[in-house]
Design goal:
The structure is a single chain. The chain has helices at 26-41, 125-138, 149-166, and strands at residues 46-48, 58-61, 71-82, 85-89, 99-103, 106-112, 118-124. The protein is an alpha+beta fold and 167 residues long. The strands form two sheets. Strands 1-2-3-6-7 form a five-stranded antiparallel beta sheet. Strands 4-5 form a two-stranded antiparallel sheet.
Length: 167
């Protein structure tokens, strides 16, 4: 396993649209293992392949307290969503920035697991938020895109300042 570099907003590669995985092979298994290691190391509760510059529909999530409940979603599709919730979101690609985002409260997601089997999951609360956040990445969106233009400009300025300080 190896740690993968995470793209930082506003890197234009975060806008790429991920393509479906056609076959689970060693390259996908290695990608998932590396993404999980990268997510735990960060630490974060979710990571989309887009964020490590691999434009395939692969997401890893672990919202458990103990960090022992890795979930892998390949080619995820939200089949149904219901309700509404608003919570503070952050993103490993937008370090140090947190903002309220409105999401569905519950989602039904269909996906392929690492054995190539189709699965469905009904999720709510934090897991539902995380699934929606990571699936946005696969569609070239970061949570900042949900915010007002004014907030987006402030975030870009703040990140540019941070980059100058650390450079
Ligand atoms: Ni993110």
């Amino acid at each position: 396993m190896s740690l993968l570099p995470i793209l930082r907003f506003p890197d234009p590669r975060l806008k790429k649209i991920a393509v479906p995985v056609l076959k689970i092979d060693d390259s996908i298994r290695k990608l998932v293992a590396d993404m999980a290691e990268t997510m735990y190391e960060a630490p974060g509760i979710g990571l989309a392949a887009t964020q490590v510059d691999v434009h395939k529909q692969v997401v890893v999530i672990d919202t458990s307290e103990e960090k022992n409940d890795l979930r892998v979603f390949i080619n995820p599709v939200i089949e149904q969503c219901a309700g509404q919730q608003t919570g503070e979101e952050g993103c490993l690609s937008v370090p140090g920035i947190y903002n309220k985002v409105e999401r569905a409260e519950r989602v039904n997601v269909r996906y392929m697991d690492l054995d190539g089997k189709t699965q469905t999951l009904q999720a709510d609360g934090l897991l539902a938020v995380c699934i929606q956040h990571e699936m946005d990445h696969l569609n070239g969106k970061v949570f900042v895109d949900h915010l007002s233009q004014l907030k987006q400009t402030r975030i870009r300025n703040k990140l540019a300042k941070q980059a100058r300080v650390t450079a």
